[in-house]
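Write out this protein's structure.
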Amino acid sequence: MQQKQLEPVEPKEGVEWYLNEKEHENSPATVKAHEYRLNHFIRWCDQNSIDNLNTLTGRDLHRYKQWRRDDGDLNNVSLQTQLGTLRVFLKWGAKVDAVAEGLHDKILMPQLNKGENERDQKIDPEMAFEIINYLRTYKYASRDHVLFELMWHTAARLGGMHSLDVDDYHPNESYIEFNHRPETDTRLKNGFDGERPVALGEDVCTILDDYISNTRYEVTSQERRPLIASKDGRLSKSTMRQHIYRITHPCWHGAGCPDGKDELECEYSSNVDKAGGCPFNYNPHAIRRGSLTYHLLQDWSKENTSERADVSPAVLEKHYDRRTAIEKLDQRRQDVKKL
């Protein structure tokens, strides 16, 4: 078969064409997510003097994969998502004669160990804020919006979210209380020792105000008004877990499937009960782990972070602090400047 005649195109220009095309077919959140990921590819091309997409080979893509993993300190799930976007871009590029046909298939996607992924997985801040931006834009003040954003903002466990009542929220003082109420089957992991008030930001308070006023099902459960409610009462922890799985599907919040599947035909995205089977989404504890790491990256002290999230400093250090050695070094440098 005669090979297609390729037309030279610079990586940056090719990405700009691709994003312009996406703008007519996808939400702004999707376009922004793809732009963010492909900017890393452009940066790598610049560093390696690749000025024509026609010259890309499978070996180049392997080098990029290794570079991106190290440069971003990415776990396999995050790397899957980033490489998935590149695959979609290269598949499109073949249609406009920018890259060789089938080049996208030469990207070797990392294999995921689901068990290991569940233990060590954390959502990266950039992904968390992509999801929050999508929720604020397209699902504002919905139950899913409140569930995810409040979990990220407070670093709460799933059991803590399940325990919340409307009356636990204090809008005038901008905080929410986590209370242990075993008599009505809403327990905190550390019992009464886990009870605490948690300060909320102004944006989160506004979202909660709008949710309670306009969106929340006005129901009671055991003479209490659950904050995260269904039409039948308090949303169960298992159902909350399934919703977190669904919310964090890349295709659900506009990032596109790393495997290139059609969202409407994917068994994981079309059925909330199977949402946990997707290899690219996040479990609730990954939200907590990512949030705690982000708190530390924002120069919160370990003492304040541990009190906010009901975790001892020792456990925080051992199980939740996922800052890289370089990130810790950069933060220490800022402290040195204060001397």
